[in-house]
Amino acid sequence: MAGAAGAEDAKPQPAAKDAPPGVRYVYKTNGTVISYFDAIAKSAGISGHKNLGSGKDLDQPLAIDSGRKKLEDTPRTLMKKGEVDVWLTTDAAWAEKPDLKEFGTAGLAGNPNFRLYQQARFLVEKVEERDNSKIADVQAALDKQRKRLEVRVDAINKEIGKPVVFIVPVGDAIVKLREMVVDGKFPGVTKQSELFMSGYKGALHAEKHVNLLTAYCNYAAIYQKSPVGLKLEMKDITEEQHAILQKLAWETVSQYPHAGVKK
User: Fold this and answer.
1) Does some domain include residue 33?
2) Could you give the CA distance from residue 263 to residue 260 in angstroms, rounded to a whole number?
3) β-pair type (63-64, 115-119)
4) Residue 120's domain spans which residues?
5) C-alpha distances in angstroms, 158 versus 149, 150, 155?
6) Looking at residue 227, what DSSP letter applies?
7) Which of 35, 81, 107, 222 has the highest local Cβ count within 10 Å?
8) What are 222-241's pLDDT values in tens digits?
9) What is the domain-level CATH number for residue 77?
């Protein structure tokens, strides 16, 4: 995974009067994305934003410090105590995994306002073919997978009786970014492949711009706030690039019903 160099350089901003309360969250996702997500919340001046650690499933101990330290609590034990507001998760096979109903029910057991966010991330592709990919084909394949997830989420929320599980349309935002690269509209990046890691890792793992875009999407969905205008200083990411990624994230998430953003 790409490093999160500079992610701690976010400058805290005075909390706005309408700033949402910070969330206490557990995650199962890319550690770099999480580092960026925390930096974004810091820049927004949100108080109470708390990373509780990463959890592989409900009943394995939480981990912090990039997995080097195990905690006594599991996600389920914290949920029972009402100390978890949000679970943020992603999987390579995100259209089928994880057991979202079990996660949602466990979270609600201790917190009636618990929310679960499943990232609909980019699809696995052959690395050597990415630069020749047609954007329309990439979007069509993503649409097919995302719609399968939407059917699952709708059924789960109906069974639970209220919206608890939401989808972050990360993959759609990334397709838009790839289209900008193809059209020469994203400064500093000339090929689609430059947005992803090189070699075999590139099939599953992204580079800094995609990781940051993902984090902006997560912020937009979870906090229901636009990241546009937030100031973050990160290595090798320019202010112009930040502005584009912020705009892409907000436009994509705010216009997607399953993200649950209330306007």
Assistant:
1) yes
2) 9
3) unpaired
4) 17-256
5) 14, 12, 5
6) -
7) 107
8) 999 999 999 998 888 999 99
9) 3.40.50.1110
Instruction: Identify whether the C-beta of residue 169 lies closer than 8 Å to the C-beta of residue 256.
Output: yes
Is residue 172 within 8 Å of 186, Cβ to Cβ? no
Report the number of distinct structural domains present in the chain.
1
Residue 263 within a domain: no
Does residue 9 lie in a domain region?
no
| Per-residue model confidence as pLDDT tens digits over 32-78 | 899 999 999 999 999 999 999 999 899 999 999 777 889 999 999 99
Beta bridge partners, 51, equal 25
Residue reference for tokens 């934003």: 49
Sheet holding 63-64, edge to edge: 69-70, 63-64, 50-54, 24-28, 86-89, 115-119, 165-168
Q: In this predicted structure, what is the pLDDT of residue 144? A: 96
How far are the Cα atoms of 61, 86, 110, 170 from residue 53, in angstroms, in the given order?
9, 12, 18, 21
Domain-located, residue 5: no
Angle among Cα 21, 31, 109 to the nearest 5 degrees reads 50
Token code pair at residue 233 = 């200083």
For 24-76, the DSSP string reads EEEEES-HHHHHHHHHHHHHTT-TT-EEEEE-SSTTSPPEETTTTEE-S--HH
Residues in the chain, overall count: 263
**Which residue is listed with tokens 């901003």?**
13
**How far, CA to CA in Å, does 166 sit from each of 32, 112, 125, 193?**
22, 15, 25, 29
Q: Which residues of the chain have pLDDT under 70?
A: 1-18
